[in-house]
UniProtKB/TrEMBL annotation:
<dbReference type="InterPro" id="IPR018540">
    <property type="entry name" value="Spo0E-like"/>
</dbReference>
<dbReference type="GO" id="GO:0046983">
    <property type="term" value="F:protein dimerization activity"/>
</dbReference>
<dbReference type="InterPro" id="IPR037208">
    <property type="entry name" value="Spo0E-like_sf"/>
</dbReference>
<protein>
    <submittedName>
        <fullName>Aspartyl-phosphate phosphatase Spo0E family protein</fullName>
    </submittedName>
</protein>
<dbReference type="GO" id="GO:0043937">
    <property type="term" value="P:regulation of sporulation"/>
</dbReference>
<dbReference type="InterPro" id="IPR036638">
    <property type="entry name" value="HLH_DNA-bd_sf"/>
</dbReference>
<dbReference type="Pfam" id="PF09388">
    <property type="entry name" value="SpoOE-like"/>
</dbReference>
Length: 52
């Protein structure tokens, strides 16, 4: 996945997580899973940044 696509995925996942948090609460399993997925995407971006 190229950097630009990864950034778009991060933005979409961040919005999804925010909406889940507002609708279902911050401790809801769906919100937590979305947060973990966002963390994973952010880690991938960090790796790409460090490789340069």
């Amino acid at each position: 996945m190229n950097k630009e696509k990864l950034i778009l995925e991060i933005e979409k996942k961040r919005e999804e997580m925010t909406q889940l948090g507002l609708k279902k609460g911050l401790t809801n399993i769906e919100t937590v899973l979305s947060s973990q997925q966002l963390d994973h995407l952010l880690n991938l971006l960090q790796i790409k940044e460090n490789v340069r």
